[in-house]
Design brief:
single chain, 494 residues, alpha/beta, 5-stranded parallel β-sheet, 22 strands, 21% strand, binds NADP nicotinamide-adenine-dinucleotide phosphate
Length: 494
């Protein structure tokens, strides 16, 4: 009998009021891992109430004290890293080394955000009047609603919750339905670290039953969302009408440009890692290669050989290089896009079918797939597939590559392989994405740099980095007049 897990509301572990549950399963073999509350608006209401009740005391807790709790949480994560990584591989599928990286990002963010407890810097500046003091300070906003996807089930929640909490907000967290267990671990870690009751509340359940009411609740002035563009824009529309602040991190269609002077062995290795790591289910995954015509054919050959050589299997097996997709629906989506690729006249050079031999038949496995001869405006070259499908597009020069990169609806990450320093700097300037890599694939962000994308990927916010507090704080400007008389600022200038 699978374990039954509960919501975390007001410091207590409680089932959904209805008592209903949903199953969490392992995409590598279909095994049921646990039953989680299928919560409803009434449970969201309880959680928001608890968060609102906890806010006044948490807001007034000195920030360095708040930060100590984050530090402790980071230490607990570090001690439990392997166990958390294994749990992640089981519920989400990514191979164990990558799951360890996901947990490590959470640890890094705990320590990075905890440092803010002794910074939270504001600005002092001279007043234009005599005997007057002027400064600006960051202040928390209130209850933050956090809605996250399944592909980084630990890292992404920490990117949002750590900065929100250290700044003095309280939170209601709705994780993805496909990866509830890591969210459960994260809430338990905060509890163990000594977070006061109600400061973080966790509600499991669907987008419509839990996400929607959280977006609509007037007591939740800030929403931080990572997920698909479709869902993000819907949230933004509904929350915008209510005057809320919404930080969105959405889809990507990230390109690697390979110039004719590139180190092809390095480029191949990096592209394979960016395209097929996490089975292509990273927001920063490479799904387009823009290959210079002079190296195109050789690169296609190397990528096809490399893709065919990747070993698929359960991520808990150290020999596995590519794990399963997240669920059956995603396998079908990938299969549909492969068919679209054929219909568009692209040439399949690797993969193109689900992997079903032996034990793979029990899981959601799909062969790493490479298409060559893809037109830059083909659907497989412009739409986010979120699976192990790579499209290679032939380009004649750097300018064309930049043009195709920048024409995308999305703008998260891009990369160029070249040995020409002038071209590398031109690329850093001209590639319109929130993240640009030189001689590295499109994945591998470090948490102390701002993370986010342009155009359809986001709405101008950046997570992590030195910008980590921006989505979760307001600026307050404070003037103190110690002249003892009425000074009227600009009006007294005459
Ligand atoms: P998704 O379907 O958009 O779901 C994201 C979250 O939103 C889930 O918790 C989901 O709940 C919830 N949700 C769904 N409908 C909702 C509604 N009507 N109101 C409120 N919440 C709702 O995305 P996903 O399939 O989990 O993740 C894959 C997507 O995330 C890809 O597009 C990927 O590019 C993007 N992503 C972007 C970044 C980035 O930083 N830019 C990072 C990682 C992933 P349920 O799980 O219950 O449906
Ligand atoms: Mg989904």
């Amino acid at each position: 009998m699978a374990q039954t897990f509960h919501n975390f509301i007001g410091g207590r572990w409680v089932p959904a009021r209805s008592g209903r549950t949903f199953a969490n399963s392992n995409p590598a073999n279909g095994e049921v891992l646990g039953e989680f509350p299928a919560s409803a608006p009434e449970d969201v209401n309880d959680a928001v109430e608890a968060a609102a009740r906890a806010y006044p005391a948490w807001r007034l807790t000195p920030a360095p004290r708040r930060a100590e709790i984050l530090l402790r949480a980071g230490e607990i994560m570090r001690a439990r890293k392997q166990e958390l990584a294994r749990a992640m591989t089981r519920e989400m599928g990514k191979v164990l080394a990558e799951a360890g990286g996901d947990v490590q990002e959470g640890i890094d963010m705990a320590f990075h955000a905890a440092g803010e407890g002794r910074r939270l810097h504001g600005v002092t500046t001279p007043s234009e009047m005599p005997d007057k003091w002027a400064m600006s300070v960051r202040v928390p906003i209130g209850v933050v609603g956090v809605i996250t996807p399944w592909n980084f089930p630990f890292a992404i929640p920490t990117w949002k919750l750590m900065p929100a909490l250290v700044a003095g907000n309280t939170a209601v967290f709705k994780p993805a339905t496909d990866t509830p267990e890591l969210a459960w671990h994260l809430a338990g870690i905060f509890e163990q670290a000594g977070l006061p009751a109600g400061v973080l509340n966790l509600v499991f359940g669907s987008g419509s039953q839990v996400g929607d009411p959280l977006v609509a609740d007037p007591r939740v002035p800030v929403l931080s969302f990572t997920g698909s563009t479709e869902v993000g824009l819907g949230i933004s529309t509904r929350a915008g009408a209510l005057g809320k602040r919404v930080a969105l991190e959405m889809g990507g269609k990230n390109a690697v440009i390979v110039m004719d002077d590139a180190d092809l062995a390095l480029a191949t290795e990096a592209i394979l890692w960016s395209a097929f790591g996490t089975t292509g289910q990273r927001c920063t995954a490479c799904s387009r290669v823009l290959a210079h015509e002079r190296v195109h054919d050789e690169l296609v050959q190397r990528l096809a050989d490399g893709a065919r050589g990747l070993k698929l299997g359960d991520g808990l097996d150290p020999a596995s290089q590519v794990g399963p997709l997240i669920n059956r629906g995603q396998v079908e989506r990938v299969q549909d896009y492969v068919k679209i690729g054929f219909d568009e006249g692209a040439k399949l050079v690797a993969g193109g079918v689900p992997a079903t031999e032996g034990a793979l038949a029990k899981g959601c496995f799909y062969r790493p797939t490479v298409f060559a001869g893809v037109r830059p405006d083909a659907r497989i070259a412009v739409e986010e597939i979120f699976g192990p499908v790579l499209s290679v597009v032939r380009v004649t020069d750097f300018a064309e590559a930049v043009r195709i990169n920048n024409a995308s609806r999305f703008g998260l990450s891009s990369s160029i392989f070249t040995r020409d320093v002038n071209r590398a700097f031109a690329a850093m300037r001209d590639l319109d994405t929130g993240i640009v890599y030189v001689n590295h694939g499109t994945t591998g962000a470090e948490i102390h740099l701002p993370f986010g994308g342009m155009r359809g990927t986001g709405n101008g916010h950046r997570e992590a980095g030195h910008t980590l507090l921006d989505p979760f704080t307001e600026w307050k400007s404070v003037y103190v007049d110690f002249s003892g008389r009425l000074q009227r600022a600009q009006i007294d200038r005459g």
